[in-house]
Amino acid sequence: MPPAVYILGLSVFALGTSEFMLSGLLPPIADDMNVSIPQAGLLISAFAIGMVVGAPLLAVATLRLPRRTTLIALISVFGLGQIAGALAPTYEVLFASRVVSALACAGFWAVGAAVAIAMVPVNQRARAMAVMIGGLSIANVLGVPLGAFLGEHFGWRSAFWAVGAASAVALIGVVTRIPYIPLPEKKPELRRELAIYRDRQVWLAIVITALAAGGVFCAFSYLAPLLTDVAGLDSGWVPWILGLFGIGALVGTTIGGRVADAHLFGVLLSGITASTVFLAALALFASSQAAVVALAFLLGLSAFFTAPALNARMFNVAGAAPTLAGATTTAAFNLGNTSGPWLGGTVIDADFGFAATAWAGAAMTVLALAAVAVSLRLQRSGGGRSRSRLIAKSAAAGTGSAGAAVGTGSAGAAVGTGGAAGAERAVPGPGRPGL
């Protein structure tokens, strides 16, 4: 495995830490900026919105730019966004810095995945993606709890400075270790790729991904105040419990990536059902310290158990569009990461309490289950397949790229082959609930 792939993994560690660390920093940010916790929670949505917009936009905008130069520019902008956040004098400036950082993050994901794949043989693509996406898992296990620890002892701005320093290290690695990657001879035709959005299975995959991710994030985004204000835990426990969520994510990713290879819809149904049950249990037993600690681990496990199948499903129905498939996956996950915190904040503003965010999240995952059932019914009846085959043939004729398609998202990685008509195969790799 080329060392450059590990540099990309280090970069993803910085990206993922920045995206998810606010879950443990909302109370101090709210106090310092004189805003409510739901308003502070909108900073999480701001990052997710930037990812939703930035993924497809930058995937298209950087198609004809040198890969290495693009990576250098994007990680530099991301690092400057962290510095701007650390120095932000007002909530509005901090909000803007999160949007800018998210745009750079989305672009780096799209380009970084292409670079990782270009540097390895075909039979090592999944391994290369696993190394790169592994940085996200480590961010959940180490980076997010460390951010909460720094926020608790040195102020929330110190966490932004730490991510800025990690970005600087990543920038040095990209400059010194990423080789020149030539652009492909045949450029994709966006008109043909946009045809995937005429397939209702693609839209169902977007809805399922957004609702499944949003349901977990609706509660996870406000886990810190729930732990301290409802369960009565000392704030010093927050980093450790966030780390427990990350460990659950690692376990879930490992299991889900292997099982989804043969039972994609089974993983979707069982994983989202488990998340629904755990969210309901969190709402019911939010005042029990032992229960919330255990459920933090279980929620991480169920959410990331589902993520490889969510990624694979998107690539099975949109794999004929390699340029937009990965961007669509990223956007779908971050639609959930936007709507979930917003819904949770709305519930809190209505004076239902922090525990009610788990009920709201469970409602989202129930809707996700309904969408999975509709998608499965269409799959069994053959609905949507003819259009997918037509799109795949069109893309093959125009770009020659109806074969392997690799996609990334803050929520994971998957390799799809042969479009919707192909086999349902999931590559083990962590998903993003950012995430």
Commentary on this structure:
This protein has 435 residues and is mainly alpha-helical. It has a two-stranded antiparallel ribbon. It has helices at residues 3-20, 26-33, 37-61, 67-87, 91-118, 125-154, 156-177, 190-193, 200-220, 223-230, 238-259, 264-284, 289-318, 322-349, 356-381, 385-399; strands spanning 404-409, 412-417. A hairpin with a 2-residue loop joins strand 1 and strand 2 (412-417).
Which features would summarize this protein structure in a list?
single chain; 435 residues; mainly alpha; two-stranded antiparallel ribbon; 2 strands; 75% helix; 3% strand; globular; disordered C terminus
The geometry reads as globular
**Beta-strand content:** under 5%
The largest beta-sheet arranges its strands as 1-2
- Rg of Cα set: 20 Å
List the helices and strands and how they pair.
Elements: H1 3-20, H2 26-33, H3 37-61, H4 67-87, H5 91-118, H6 125-154, H7 156-177, H8 190-193, H9 200-220, H10 223-230, H11 238-259, H12 264-284, H13 289-318, H14 322-349, H15 356-381, H16 385-399, E1 404-409, E2 412-417
Helix pairs in contact: 1-5, 1-6, 1-7, 2-3, 3-5, 3-14, 4-5, 4-7, 6-7, 6-11, 9-12, 9-13, 9-14, 9-15, 11-13, 12-13, 12-15, 13-14, 14-15
Can you describe this structure in just a few lines?
The chain has 435 residues and is mainly alpha-helical. It is 75% helix and 3% strand. It is globular, with a radius of gyration of 20 Å.
